[in-house]
Write a structure and sequence with these properties.
Length: 427
C-alpha cells in the first residue's frame, strides 16, 4: 500500500506530502558496508557469519583476489550446520581461533550476522562475549547485523559504528569539550576536515571510526558530534544515550552544506564569526569555481532520485541549490525527520519526496516524467538506459570522496559525466 503522509518538519508548508511506498525493493545487502569499512579501520577484521552467497557477494563487490589478505572473510554455514549435525558455535569458535592465530595484528574483530535462516538462529552477541572472554587480552570482539533484510545497504555501517559506541571510553563532566566527526570518510577527506577544524581553532577533534579502532575517542556530557552521513540513526542515538549532543547542521556536500556544517561547530565552540569567514572564504571560493565548470551542463536539467542509500536528500539539495537542477522526485529508503530537518527546510518549495520503495510504481513515474538524469541502483540502470534514459549509478556516490569543499567539483562532475557521455553517443 502507498499513502501520502504530511512531512513533520519546520518546512512542512513548503514541501509536498511524502509518498510512503511499500513494495518490491531494489537495494544492495548491508554486508556491502564492509568494503569501505575494512579499508578505513586498518586494525580491524570483519568475519561474516553467512552462506556461500554472502562470501561471493563480498568477494565480487570488493574486487579483491583471495591471496591479497584482505581484512574480511566469511565463516560459511554449511548444510550440516542447518541440519543440526554440527555445533555451529563450536565451529565459529574454531574459525576465530584459527584467524587470530594467523593474523595476530588484528585489534578488533567484528562478527557480522547475515540473513540466512541458519545464521539468524545463532546468538552472535553471546558468541562475541564468549570469544571476548577467551581472547580479550589480544583483541576486542564485537558483533552487528549486516542483514540484507534491513532498510538499505548503508545501514551496515550504522550497525557497525553503533556497536563501537558502548566500548568508547567514558569522559567525566570535568573533561574539556571534544568534537567527534561521525561517519566513515576517505582518509583524504578526513584529513581535510581535521585541518580545517585546527585552522578554526577547534581542538580535541576525533573521528568515529578512527583509522585505528583500538584508539576510540572518549564520550561524555561535554562531547559534541557532527554526522558526516545521513544514515547513522542508531549510532547517533547511542551517542546521545552516552551523554553526547548532536550538532544539527546540513550535511557537508557542496559549498552550502560544508559551510553550514563547519559553522554550526564553530558557533558551538565559541569561534568568532569573522575568524570563521576569514578561514573558510578561500575554500568556499575555490569550491564554487570548481562547481562552476559543471553548472552550465547541469543547470535546468531534471533529475529523479530512486531510493538507494539515504544520501538522496542532501545530494538533491546540493544539485538544486548550487547547480540549478530541477528535482522531479527525491526518493529515499528512509527519511530521518530529525537528522534531515535542516536539509528539508532548504529544498525547493513543493519538491516531491518519497520514502520507501515500490519499484514498479517508481519506474512508471520515471517513464512518465522522462528526467534528464535518473539516479538509481545498478540493477535498474541498464534497463532504463536501454529505454533511452540517462542514468547515474547511485552506489558510486557512496564509494567516491564527495564530502567537503575540495570534493565539491568532483561531486558535481559525477552527475555531469553521464550527461556528457549521452551527448557524445548522440553525435
Amino acid at each position: 500500500m502507498n499513502a501520502s503522509l504530511p512531512l513533520n518538519t519546520a518546512s512542512a508548508v513548503d514541501c509536498a506530502p511524502v509518498l510512503k511506498e511499500r513494495g518490491q525493493r531494489e537495494v544492495f545487502c548491508g554486508l556491502t558496508g564492509i568494503i569501505w569499512l575494512h579499508r578505513k579501520m586498518q586494525d580491524a577484521f570483519f568475519l561474516v557469519v553467512g552462506s556461500r552467497t554472502c562470501a561471493h557477494l563480498i568477494q565480487s563487490a570488493a574486487g579483491v583476489m583471495i591471496f591479497a589478505e584482505p581484512r574480511f572473510a566469511t565463516a560459511i554455514m554449511e548444510e550440516r550446520d542447518l541440519a543440526g549435525l554440527a555445533d555451529a558455535n563450536e565451529e565459529l569458535d574454531r574459525i576465530v581461533d584459527q584467524l587470530l592465530e594467523r593474523r595476530p595484528e588484528i585489534k578488533s574483530l567484528f562478527l557480522v550476522g547475515s540473513c540466512p535462516s541458519e545464521v539468524i538462529k545463532l546468538d552472535l552477541s553471546k558468541a562475541a562475549q564468549r570469544l571476548g572472554a577467551k581472547h580479550g587480552r589480544q583483541v576486542r570482539i564485537l558483533n552487528y547485523s549486516g542483514s540484507g533484510i534491513e532498510t538499505t545497504f548503508t545501514e551496515g555501517e550504522d550497525a557497525c559504528l553503533a556497536s563501537l559506541v558502548p566500548v568508547m571510553p567514558e569522559l567525566p563532566a570535568s573533561a574539556p569539550p571534544n568534537l567527534i566527526i561521525v561517519g566513515s570518510l576517505p582518509d583524504i577527506v578526513e584529513d581535510q576536515f581535521l585541518r580545517l577544524f585546527a585552522e578554526l581553532g577547534i581542538e580535541n577533534v576525533a573521528s568515529l571510526p578512527e583509522r585505528s579502532v583500538a584508539d576510540l575517542p572518549g564520550v561524555g556530557p561535554n562531547t559534541r558530534f557532527l554526522l558526516a552521513q545521513p544514515f547513522l540513526g542508531d549510532t547517533a542515538q547511542r551517542l546521545k544515550e552516552r551523554g553526547a549532543q548532536r550538532l544539527d547542521a546540513l550535511f557537508p556536500f557542496g559549498v552550502q552544506g560544508t559551510t553550514d556544517w563547519l559553522k554550526v561547530a564553530a558557533t558551538e565552540f565559541g569561534i568568532d564569526l569573522q575568524h570563521f569567514e576569514e578561514i573558510t572564504l578561500p575554500y568556499q571560493l575555490r569550491a564554487d569555481r570548481a562547481i562552476a565548470h559543471q553548472r552550465k551542463r547541469l543547470e535546468g536539467k531534471s533529475i529523479f532520485f530512486m531510493p538507494d542509500s539515504q544520501l538522496e536528500v542532501p545530494l538533491a539539495r546540493f544539485l538544486a541549490n548550487e547547480l540549478g537542477m530541477v528535482l522531479t522526485e527525491v526518493g529515499s529508503p528512509y527519511l530521518h525527520r530529525t537528522h534531515l530537518a535542516q536539509e528539508l527546510a532548504v529544498l525547493p518549495a513543493g519538491v516531491i519526496l518519497s520514502e520507501g520503495q515500490d519499484v514498479d510504481r517508481q519506474l512508471d513515474r520515471v517513464r512518465a516524467t522522462k528526467p534528464d538524469l535518473t539516479v538509481c541502483g545498478l540493477g535498474l540502470a541498464n534497463p532504463l538506459e536501454s529505454e533511452g534514459l540517462c542514468t547515474k549509478w547511485a552506489i558510486e556516490l557512496v564509494f567516491s570522496p564527495i564530502h567537503g569543499f575540495d570534493q565539491a567539483g568532483d561531486l558535481a562532475e559525477l552527475f555531469a559525466r553521464p550527461l556528457r557521455r549521452r551527448d557524445v553517443l548522440r553525435v
